[in-house]
């Protein structure tokens, strides 16, 4: 007698909310990306993880682990580094120690060294200030298994309550490892020759940038200015709270690093006098963005946590909570004495196009239906659109479903800002901070033309305006999938080119 195959049931939550093209853990809580590196044709993503529950247990935090060949399709592995008697495993980084400076190598395998924050909950509960210190572990099997260093911590707490999230890189010019550590609302730098013994270099951050919350998850790296041989250094600092639209966000600084001190560029200093803060992403749901170590061709690739501490623990998923943004490549652009750190989805995303819809020169008054129900699956799509002959009007994209729920976004070209309005997008009563007044990204001019690249998933939107000069990332929880996309305005609409790609990432 033939046995029947077991019936696999997919929960309504899985079907509705589990992303198609963004990494999520199979179960449990996730937040910050950690320890990201590339080695032997494989990208490694580690992340803050509580595997056994969908709300964070900060006393039992692990590093979760996933791998990918192309930054798009991820395979989750067993959690990599678990908490122990010294504390929970908080955020940090990992480096490929090609020259075995650490001495952890065995002569056959390149050691990968993870640098993380030990968080001692007993000390925190006792009110002691030095609950956080920096520690290391190493792997000789490409990140699969890890051995914690016997003399941890390698960097003790200097008497600062919030002292965490070490980001380490190899400073080739000075032949030293450099560690950036978030220290309350400052950035501290340390140097080492062997990843074990660290000396203090300098501090950065007093009276510059955003200080509405604690600084976290820093990242310092060199990058060429696009189209030139000029090299600058970029420092990314995540901050919570104090984001441009509330809660968590990432800011950046442009300057120079001499092996000891990071100093802001004079032009960028003038920018900040006007802008106050330079934001990596103006949406509400891109936090803890940091870059991969050892990426080929010196590309600077980042991934962020696609949520916000304002409501991350309350979002309406129970099997898992948290996802990552799409992987993005960073570039530094200089225009009219202003620096912009722009980001765009990695090109590998295009390899997953299942079908495309293209249309040129669409002209209409007041409304254009860009995608009708059943034409393209808008829960896994990339929309590319060029608008021309823009007037001082508001141009609104509207995603809608059969329940009449809508997600609206676009450009107010009269008052000069981009916006996302998720107040009518579905479930939002889980937090009074989720559908605040609409999210805005200020623009410095009125535009005659504008390009949008829009990545749509089941519960997220990532908007890249004018090749990533402004980015907005937001999540939502609709009752059924959005099936239609319209563009509306009071006047004439001129679409130069529309291309919608449906993705197939399984």
From TrEMBL:
GO BP annotation list: sucrose catabolic process
Residues covered by the Glycosyl hydrolase family 32 C-terminal domain: 349-500
One GO location term (cellular component): cytoplasm
Top-rank lineage group of the source organism: Bacteria
One GO molecular-function entry: sucrose alpha-glucosidase activity
Alphabetical list of SUPFAM superfamilies matching this protein: Arabinanase/levansucrase/invertase, Concanavalin A-like lectins/glucanases
InterPro entries noted in UniProt: ConA-like_dom_sf (IPR013320), Glyco_hydro_32 (IPR001362), Glyco_hydro_32_AS (IPR018053), Glyco_hydro_32_C (IPR013189), Glyco_hydro_32_N (IPR013148), Glyco_hydro_beta-prop_sf (IPR023296)
CDD domains: GH32_Inu-like
The Glycosyl hydrolase family 32 N-terminal domain, residue ranges: 22-345
Keyword terms, alphabetized: Glycosidase, Hydrolase
Family classification: Belongs to the glycosyl hydrolase 32 family.
Name of this protein: Glycosyl hydrolase family 32
